[in-house]
Amino acid sequence: MRTLLCALTVVCLCGWLSLTAQEKAAQVKVATDPEQAGPDFPIQGEYVGETASKQRLGAEVIALGDGKFQVNFLPGGLRGEGGIYEKRVEASGQRDGQTTRITSKDGKWSATIQDGRMTGTTGDGIRFELQRIIRQSKTLGQKPPTGAVVLFDGSGADNWEPKSRVQIVDGALVGNDIASKQKFRDHKLHLEFRLTFMPYARGQARSNSGVYIQHRYEIQVLDSFGLRGANNECGGIYGQHAPLINMCYPPLQWQTYDVEFRAARFDSSGKKVANAVITIWHNGVLIHDKVELKGPTGGGQPETDSPGPLFLQGHGGQVRYRNIWAVETKAD
Question: What confidence score (pLDDT) does residue 317 get?
Answer without folding.
Answer: 66
